[in-house]
Write a structure and sequence with these properties.
By secondary structure, the protein is of the alpha+beta class. About 20% of the residues lie in helices and about 30% in strands. The radius of gyration is 19 Å and the shape is globular.
């Protein structure tokens, strides 16, 4: 929604060189904004990790699915760092999909990591690999850290991508539910820092948050009780049957929604809600126990109809076919407490 600050013809871009989370600055021309920007969030289920039981069919299925989605930016969970990224880049290049930019979040988890791959070079990369929290008189790290990249285009449109993979529901003596809630709180602090600097920032938070929409951790992150301008909004992508589950636990035959795409108030006018989907592929289960989530954005500062009346408890609920179009409204928070 917000226009980026005025820029010189050449922007300072941060080029991330594998391995690592930061790299030297280099002058790069800003890329032209595409007509639509496709962002993929995908948990790859131990892609090349030490626990991986993947065979060649699984790796091939992952590459086929990502190549079919053809995203501009992807945020990946459970990938084995640089080696995993390089393997995936190679498989995608063989399928005609090239992602020259890649960065890995090297946090406390040395095995299952977050990674961002993109066709564009971000102007800023500032992954959080050091956040901690206190629980039962112990200091715990946010195990997988948080990915953070800022992309800017020649039309001055700026997008903040934040990626997360919160604590799983696997038993821990410290309490896995509390650990996940504390990690979510740290993630919320990160979002608050962005919005404090720019209340109308275009922020997209994606990843495997390992909890249900009504959980304490998701409520903490979305800040549902705050003013409209401070909340995150659940875009709730669905598949062709309108189902929103994203993960299957095979042993229990349990389907859950653990993966999310959350947008700031400022980003909502640029969201193509019809394009925010869970794509259906026949070999999705060969690739992962998670399904991929697609977010489609129109990367330009738009004047759009107000869509908040399509949200319930900040969760997007598509209008019925006979619903009236929402009245056009402002894109800025109206009350002082919404800012």
């Amino acid at each position: 929604m917000n226009t980026a600050p005025p820029l010189l013809p050449l922007a300072i871009a941060v080029i991330s060189l594998l391995p690592g989370t930061t790299a030297p600055a280099q002058q790069q021309p800003l890329p032209a904004a595409p007509e639509k920007l496709v962002v993929l969030s995908y948990n790859l289920n131990n892609y090349a990790t030490r626990q991986s039981r993947r065979d060649d069919k699984a790796y091939a299925a992952t590459a086929r699915i990502i190549a079919a989605v053809d995203p501009d930016i992807m945020v990946l969970s459970e990938i084995a760092g640089e080696a995993g990224v390089e393997r995936l880049q190679g498989d995608l290049a063989a399928a005609g999909r090239h992602y020259p930019y890649a960065t890995v979040v090297n946090a406390a988890d040395t095995n299952r990591k977050l990674a961002v791959l993109a066709r564009f070079v971000p102007v800023r990369v500032a992954h959080d690999t050091t956040s901690t929290y206190q629980i039962k008189e112990r200091t715990q790290p946010v195990k997988r850290g948080f990915a953070y990249c800022v992309f800017r285009f020649a039309n001055d449109y700026e997008l903040h991508i934040v990626g997360a993979h919160l604590k799983s529901k696997v038993f821990n003596t410290l309490g896995q539910t509390d650990m996940r809630r504390y990690e979510a709180r740290q993630l919320r602090y990160h979002v608050d820092t962005i919005l404090k600097s720019d209340a109308g920032a275009n922020v997209l938070v994606v990843g495997d948050l390992n909890d249900s929409p009504d959980s304490s951790s998701i409520n903490t992150l979305m800040k549902r009780r705050a003013g409209a301008g401070k909340r995150l909004y659940d875009l709730r992508p669905v598949d062709e049957t309108k189902a929103s589950w994203t993960h299957i636990w095979w042993r229990a035959d349990a389907y859950s929604r653990h993966d999310y795409t959350l947008a700031s108030f400022g980003l909502l006018p640029e969201v193509d809600f019809g394009g925010c989907i869970i794509p259906t592929f026949p070999d999705w289960a060969t690739s992962s126990d998670h399904r991929p989530l697609i977010t489609v954005l129109q990367p330009r500062n738009r004047t759009a109809p107000q869509v908040l009346n399509h949200f319930e408890r900040s969760i997007f609920m598509p209008p019925s076919a006979d619903a009236e179009e929402p009245a056009a409204g402002t894109r800025k928070p109206q009350r002082e407490d919404d800012k």
